Amino acid sequence: MKYINKNVIMLGWVSFFTDMASAMVMPILPIFVVVVLDEGMDKLGIIVAVSTFASYALRLVSGYISDRYGIVKPLVVGGYAFSALSKPLIGFTQGYKSVAGLQVAERLGKGLRSAPKDVMIVQYSRENASGKTFGFHKMMDIAGELSGALILFVLLWYFGQSETVMRNIFYATLVPGIIGLIIVTFFVRDVPKLKSHSKQSFTLTHHDKKTIGALFFYFLFLLFVFSPSFFTMQAKEVGIATTVIPLLFVVSAGVQTLSSYLFGILIDRFGVKRVLAFSYACGTAAQGLLTLQSPVFTWTAYVFLGLFTVASLNANRAFIAQNAYNKGSVYGVFYAGVALFGALGAFIGGLIWEHFDMQIALIYALAGTLVLTVLFLLMKGRHEN
Q1: pTM of the entire structure?
Q2: How far apart, in whole angstroms, are the C-alpha atoms of residue 149 and residue 246?
Q3: Which helix (H) or strand (E) holds 12?
Q4: What is the pLDDT of residues 232-253, one digit of tens each?
Q5: 10, 45, 101, 170, 188 from 16: Cα distances, Å
Q6: Which DSSP string do the residues of 338-365 spell out, in sequence order?
Q7: By CB neighbour count within 10 A (0-12 exposed, 13-18 middle, 19+ buried), where does 275 fall?
Q8: In sequence order, what are the residues at sequence separation of 6 or more whose Cβ sits closer than 8 angstroms to the Cβ of residue 51?
């Protein structure tokens, strides 16, 4: 890791503090909505769906702008500003619509910064080391989640899990959010801007289109795999206390922190497809363990959720870096696909859970992920043969 560029290291710290704030919100937000605000699982599904989908257009637009006009850092700074300011305001909400609105604002911030940030990481990566660089950045990202989840556990354990405590925790996320915003504003250098770039005719190349086509299998997988909010509500349903739920996120984040750089090395050495096959198998295992509806298996499911998340994201981001020409635009399409299919999956899952029951929703998710994993392994084997 001594060869990681200092700008990538600074971006890693930005993600560390931003995801620390997110991890202080994510484990308790579903409980806040369903229990404190007394909304149903279908309303939670709507919140997850609209907030995930909200970043759809901006991910495409920000990626296009970074390629077409060479504007990168201002988009990244603006995106982190949105995220830093929207989370604390959740503490003032009184209904699911206002929560959804603020989550939309937070996701808009993520959509604005995601593709340009990856362009910066690629620009500051050493040749043939994109896997390691993305692995390092994701490690810092998840280390922030781990820290935030531990802070949340201590706060809930010491102060209790009342509505007032939850609202005060939302307010407190302003601190790490502002620290991350200061770092990205003053300590991360913008990428060099090509003066003639804005005058060039912009089109996606054949390699760009082929790269985008290869990403659709991952998008389909996200249509079935549960979002972290649904993992949280499953944990509460099987009897895991609200105070302890942040530790489930600690398990997932800890696994991702320890394995992220390793997966980067494996991607560079063995290729994207093998790491993706492993990630899909882990995602399916996580869904299968949830169907057993036991606290022990839920804890184990979070381990496999962490492995799926970090391996699949690192593999796909490295794949784009290796194959796309207009990287900003292709990253924009990638994150847009993640948002679109993740939103649709959350909406469908929430409806099934609310109008049938949790077990039916779990079976739906397991069946979809299992079929897609088998198909991917068969296609991978046929290509290798």
Answers
A1: 0.77
A2: 5
A3: helix 6-25
A4: 999 999 999 989 999 998 899 8
A5: 10, 27, 24, 17, 14
A6: HHHHHHHHHHHHHHHHHHT-HHHHHHHH
A7: buried
A8: 100, 103, 104, 106, 107, 343
